[in-house]
Every structure is written in C-alpha cells, then in structure tokens.
C-alpha cells in the first residue's frame, strides 16, 4: 500500500512540474514577442509631419470698357436733313463712320442735349428744343447704352416734355439713363447696374436750366446739382458698388478752359469717392485730367449739332475710350485713348455726317492734320487748381 501512494505522489509531482514548465515557456514566448514589438518601435524612424501649403490667391481683376462722346444737339438743320417725309426721320446715315468705333466697348455714353419730349408737343429747335424720337432710337441702334438726360434744355417742353421723355427712355430697356424722373421715389432710387462682374452707379446732374423754373414741389423732374444732394446720392450707393460714374452739365459755353466752379465741383465729387466724371455743356472740348484718383473729362464738346455757323470749334468733338479696372477694391483706368470727331455738312446745311479725324481727307476738312494737333493739345493740357 505504501508503494502505491508514493508512486501516485510522484506522478502528481511530475504533472505539476510539467505544467509549471509549460506556463513558464508561454510567459517567455509572450515576453519575447512583446520585446520584439518594442524593439521595432524604437527602430522605426519618426514620421515627419506633412504640412499643407496654403495658397494665397491673387486678388481677382475685373474690367469693363467705356467710350464717351459729347452732345446730341439737334438743331433744325440737322433734323431737316434727316427728314424722310410724313413726320418721320432717319439720322442713321449721319453715324456710319462712327458706329464701327463703338462696337468693342461695353458701355457707350452720350449726352442727349435736346429733350425727346414727344412729337405730339411739336418738333422744335433753338431756343426751346424738342427732338424727334428717331435721333435717340438711331443712336441706341448703333450701340449707345449710357445716356445723360440732365441739362439746360431738360425743361424746354415744360413738365409734360419731361414726363414724355421719361416714358420714352423706360421703353429702351437695354439703356441706362439718369437725370430726369417722374417722382421723388424714382429720383431717389439710384439704380445699381452690373457689367462684367463690376457693379456701378450712374448719376447725371446739371448746373443750370436756362432760367426755366422747376414746377413747385417737383424738383424730381431734373437733377439740378448741389453739393448737398450729390453727397446724399453718392453716399447712398458708394459702399454698394465698385464704380461711381457722374455726368456733369457744367461750365461756360464756348470756352476750352474749365471754370473755377467746374474745378471746385470736380474736387468735391472726387472727395465723395466718384471714380469718373464726364462733362458736357460748353459745346467745345476741354482737357481730360485727374483729380486725385478721379478721372475728369471736363467737356467732350458736341457729338452732332448744327453749330457750324458758329465756327470750327463747335463742330469738333471728342471721343474718349478706356478700360475701367477694379482690383483689390481699387479703381484704375487703362488704355485711355482719344479720337477727335468732326461734324461735316455742305454749305447749304445738307448731308450731315460725323467723321473720326482718322477718316478725314483735306476734301472733307482742309488742313485736318494740323487742326487735329491743335485740338489734341487742348485735350492733353494741364489743369491748374487753386
């Protein structure tokens, strides 16, 4: 009996030792595996942090082109020449030489000096003008789409003439106009327009109305300039647009030098943040100059008129073309170019036609090359400010 007990004890002891050995082996293997993993971690090179490059975008540049000509001043001789009978008119042959020069511009400006007051009021000439609808329609047909309506002849056909004009221009849906209104609501609602991604406002003023009084309580009929009104108008849109364009009917007739008042008004408008000022009224050309960052065209002269009896200066106008560039909230002007225009007619006031000087011959205007140099010197002359 003792021998069996001893034998059984040895077997139990052996099994215990065997299990302990296996356990130790398992622990050793696990230790080796863990050590191997740790050694791998210490050997691996630390990964470099990948830094993303931040691309700084250049400010986007936006640009639109603009061309401007002067006054459509329709004297009797001009509309007689355009008459095709039965109270109808065709002015389009007068502009065939100019039309191609307009085509590559986005905005095309002119000043409708004589009101489109409606034929029912009677077509008339100096001193109280009322022009046929066709002059405006023909000019729109060749591309003009930015038109000033505020001038010293706005009230020539009284209130009804203005109301007729406002209705006429409302029907020209592709044309931006300013200067006449039929209510204070319309007058004070300065429109914001867009071209090539550039937001712009266009406002037209006149300094005079030829002594004709605006009807009481109806100051909205014509935009008569004052510093106070200009401040209200421009501040209402300045922060909403990229470019502010102002048309000014100002200055003294038949003089090439800007007046003191013109220069004062130009400086004040510049201080309000106006980018471009386009001038009319003198019926002759004046210099083009900068006031601060504001480009000022003091007078474009006549685009078309019957003023040839008053001398050569009244039938030479100016066409100014430019690119208006907006970049980084700053407005600049590039590619500014000048073309002189000549209104031709025969000695008996027939066959009116507007010619660019580049298209002239001595048969049309004798000594035209020397005349061009003389008048271009006016355009580029320096303006002095007190």
What's the architecture, going by CATH? 4-Layer Sandwich
> What can be said about the biggest beta sheet?
8 strands, mixed
Task: State the helical fraction.
Answer: 25-40%
Number of helices: 9
The protein's oligomeric status is single chain
Structural class: alpha/beta
Radius of gyration: 39 Å
The chain-level mean pLDDT equals: 91
Are there runs of 5+ residues with pLDDT below 50, and where?
1-8, 39-44
In the CATH hierarchy, what is the class? Alpha Beta
**CATH-defined fold name:** Purple Acid Phosphatase, chain A, domain 2
**What letter string, H or E per element, gives the SSE order?**
HEHEEHEHEHEHEEHEHEEEEEEEH
Number of domains: 1
Morphology: globular
Question: Summarize this, please?
Answer:
The protein is α/β, with parallel strands linked by helices and 386 residues long. The protein has a single domain, classed as Purple Acid Phosphatase, chain A, domain 2 (4-Layer Sandwich), CATH 3.60.21. It has helices spanning 2-43, 76-82, 99-102, 133-141, 158-170, 184-188, 227-237, 260-271, 368-379, and strands at residues 61-72, 83-85, 88-89, 107-111, 146-148, 176-178, 193-195, 198-206, 243-249, 276-280, 288-291, 294-297, 302-304, 316-327, 330-344, 353-356.
List keywords for this structure.
single chain; 386 residues; alpha/beta; Purple Acid Phosphatase, chain A, domain 2; 8-stranded mixed sheet; 9 helices; 30% helix; globular; disordered N terminus
Describe this structure in words.
- There is one protein chain.
- This protein is α/β, with parallel strands linked by helices and 386 residues long.
- It has one domain: Metallo-dependent phosphatases (Purple Acid Phosphatase, chain A, domain 2, 4-Layer Sandwich), CATH 3.60.21.
- Helices cover 30% and strands 24% of the residues.
- The protein has nine helices and 16 strands.
- It has helices at 2-43, 76-82, 99-102, 133-141, 158-170, 184-188, 227-237, 260-271, 368-379, and strands at residues 61-72, 83-85, 88-89, 107-111, 146-148, 176-178, 193-195, 198-206, 243-249, 276-280, 288-291, 294-297, 302-304, 316-327, 330-344, 353-356.
- The chain is globular, with a radius of gyration of 39 Å.
